[in-house]
Amino acid sequence: MTAPLPTAPSAGGARPAANTRGRVIFASLIGTTIEFYDFYIYATASVLVFPALFFPNATEINAILSAFAIFGVAFVARPLGSILFGHFGDRIGRKGTLVASLLTMGIATFLIGFLPAAQGNFTVLAPLMLVLLRFAQGLALGGEWSGAALLATENAPAGKRAIYGTFPQLGAPIGFIVANLLFVGLQLSLTAEQFQSWGWRVPFILSAVMVAVGLYVRLKLVESVAFTNVLAQKKVEKSPLAATFKHHWRPVLAGTFIMLATYVLFYLMTSFTLTYGTAETEEQARAAAAETGTAFDAAAFVPGLGIDRPLFLTMLIIGVVFFGIFTVVSGPLAEKLGRRRFLLWVTAGILAFGLAWSLFFGPGTGAAMAGLIVGFTLMGLTFGPMAAVLPELFPANVRYTGSAVAYNLSSVIGAAPASFVAIALWQAGGGNTVLVGVYLAVAAVLTFAALWLTRETRDVDYDNNVA
Fold first, then answer.
1. 35 vs 237: CA distance, rounded Å
2. CATH class for the region spanning 21-223+240-295+302-452
3. DSSP 3-state assignment of 294?
4. Which of 278, 128, 279, 158 minimizes the C-alpha distance to 225?
5. Model confidence over 359-409: pLDDT tens digits?
6. Residue ranges per domain, the chain?
7. Where, subcellularly, is it found (predicted)?
8. Which residues contact 198 (CB under 8 A, 6 or more apart)?
9. In sequence order, what are the residues at sequence separation of 6 or more whose Cβ sits closer than 8 angstroms to the Cβ of residue 146?
């Protein structure tokens, strides 16, 4: 049974009511801030809490890998979410779909805050419940980003799509900063036992407040001119997914690889650096072994930077400030230079950064701070234009589905394995991170090739581009 379609405006009727600039900015920004906040608190907890809480009987490194494996479950769910929410976004409209995705994400995140530890009767059940809720998070995020991107760009004035497209993108650094400030504050104000017992739950439970605000704002939206034009021309696709892959598979493929380097860079800069940066140095590990009277196994030990977790979280927050600043900077540059030309230069920078990775993330807090600033600056420059680039590859009647599928297929090959692969490469290198940088460089080469083979989309007729 298919959902009823909204009524199209009559040919001689008045132009549909427009969303005000402030409403567009806030609704696109608050939604992605909440979505990424929810995602980031899971990522941070995966490093700080979940290995011991849900995998108490595993070795330390296996517990970390298990937590990251569940982290990756969301990336399997995201393409399914892009199909589900994309279908309704292209058939019944952007507004209702955005509300549904936000509600799904909010409920799943809230419930994670009440999960029991894996002990007693919950030894198996607790990790399974975490997997299911993580799947729901991924399902929701699969539909959220594209809806927010379309909300911003389909309501943008002429010549400002890339600028308006930075609004939802800015939710990523803001969500990250809010999430990690909470974790830093909790770790500094609570004992280790309090944080492990209940403190980690606070950010998950508090997400309910932000979800309520986001829902209130989104319920006040009206549909965009681009979607009402689809209705007026009776061009709503019965099966947006089938139409996308039948007629627009090349843009899907191009968009998937255009996002690849962005995804790999982001998850290396956040999840992996937090694991590597806070892992003990050999000197710290030897001292700890001597203090407890245990033997130190040098052959099995993989050294990190040995930076205290609160300090490294603070360093990450500083780096993400640059992420936010350069996300805003990227919009006007992508309008002036064109999306393709601008992103080719930025991707070349990511390639160079990958090749120089071990120079930044070797011994020393100062070098790591510099690496975080450079990496997050590149992240802002590459991520900012994506909310304009990917939707512009598709006509309006399959735009939600097409951009969502490309974005989330890229998450499967780029984001999902990034932390897991990086940790494996770090271990294989015996603590050396050269191979981690090579991994990023390879992703940058693939993205550069996709951009090189893709046309410029700055001047497409966005409102009237209906297949």
1. 28
2. mainly alpha
3. coil
4. 158
5. 998 878 899 999 999 999 999 999 999 999 999 999 989 999 999 999 999
6. 21-223+240-295+302-452
7. Cell membrane
8. none
9. 82, 85, 86, 89, 390, 391, 400, 403, 404, 407
